[in-house]
Structure of Pentapeptide repeat-containing protein:
Amino acid sequence: MMEYDKQLKEYGILATNAQVIIKDNVLSIISAQIDKMKLECEKLKAKKIKKIHIFGSEIQYIYFTEDTTIDIDFIYCNFKNQVIAKKHNFNNIITFKQCIFETIVDFSKATFNCQADFFASIFKAEARFINTKFLVEQSDNNKIVESDFRESVFEGNAFFDRAIFQGRVDFNISTFKDKARFIETQFLAEQDNGEIIENNFRESVFEGNTSFDGAKFKGRVNFGISRFKAETSFIETQFLVEQDNGEIENDFRESIFEGNVVFGGITFQARVSFMFSNFMGEALFIDTNTQNCIFNHTEFNKTKFIKIDYKNAETYTFRNSTFKDTLSFENTNISKLEFDNVVFNGIVTFNEANFSNEANFSNKPSFTNCTFSNQFNIEHQYIQYRYEDIEKTRDYSQLLNYRDLFRKLKSNRIAHHNLIDASELHSQELYARELELKHKGNKTIKEHIEKWQLWFYHKLCDHHTDLLLNLKWLIIAIGLFTSLYFISRLIQDISILESLNPFGICFSIACAFIALILYWFGHIERLDFFASLNAVITLWIICYKPQLIFGIANLLGNIKYNGFENFLITIYTIVIGLIIFSLQKTARKNSIVPN
């Protein structure tokens, strides 16, 4: 049996095969086999030892005093048995660099009043830092991390519940192979805009279920390029850093969420970026203020945005993103919703969604260069644009975007057999095309003709969607023709006035007066007033000479007409033919939707 090193034995260290160096008040132990290590700080101080440095050693058992008052470095060490330091106080720097902990590590309720360094260490069993306090104050030196867990590997559960980090904390490139819990953990480092992020989880890998529920981040947070392979939850997590400059304060860029993830009741005081992130599982955003969220080049699978607190209207903006499966907005109060170059591969639903309580042009959802591959369930009023709404847009490229949107939504409605909405969207597509041609420079002759054709059918029947409007113009056309024909005949023979029924004249005057009163007080529109007058005239021709309604057929009889009347009948026949053709097409409203 090998004897323990006598010199180390005096310090409470039972070790063999040790290379011992004492220099400048530093006790260095190299490549030792340490069976037991019970640090007695007062005895070490009596020997004027201010720091212990242990390198490349294997340690069976280690016992810390309740108050550790000397610096301790463990580098490349292997701890074979449990490391228990519950409720202990560490008042000087303690370092575990590139160490291996074979079994449970428990620093629960311990207090680190100094820098704590676990750089590149491996925890092969459960690591407990529950209610642990890392109280060293944040340094003015922006290159110092007060709590360093960079490149650490947690092979068992890692519990940091209710821990307090007063200074900066760094888990960069760390791996959590089992559960990782940071429930109600407080990250209290203040934002200082230095190079080192206050709370750094960049490139970390979370292989087990992960929870940051109730955690509080006062400084900047970086989860960029991190990978969450199982269920992840950020419920009532507070990201309290204030927006300060052009940098992103809360960074989830290029993160991958392979399992389901929940962001519930989140507080984002500043910007949070999910740029180039990938949500491969189901993503739930519950009562989360998304107006500071940046979704750009983001890929979603099944996604829900749910609001329980219905009071505050939210802003949602998605750019260059893809929704592979269902996208759902439930009970949301939306003030602004923008989709720019977004692909919808799944069903999109708006369940009890409300766009600022009323749908008007200023807050309708915006879809620019989007692709709809599946059912898009949104109340039609939120994608319904009047001609006057679109006419407000003077930008030629925006008009192209509108037409592209209406075309895609129309195709989507047709594919899912909603032909009535598809018909209205087709009209909106033609509105946009009409205005597009209006604002386009250097039009060809064909485009000029198309522009006036669209204008004509827009005014005539709202592109075959308004049967009543079509009937009004039919009555107006008959009435105008009758008036002009009557004037022509009256010029030739004024005596025809004697054949008119006086009661009919009185009735016509009364109807015209009533129509004028209704128009004067704003009860009917100008077109309705004009149609009312012509309806009276049309009634006269029906009573006295109904055959005139049939236009050019009158030229085939024995009655002789002068040149003006022949011209008038010919023009009337062409116009009435177009109107009747449009009338029958409008009456068959569902059949006009393009296949």
Q: What stands out?
A: The longest strand covers residues 278-286. Confidence is low (pLDDT under 50) at residues 357-362. DSSP finds ten helices and 52 strands in the chain.
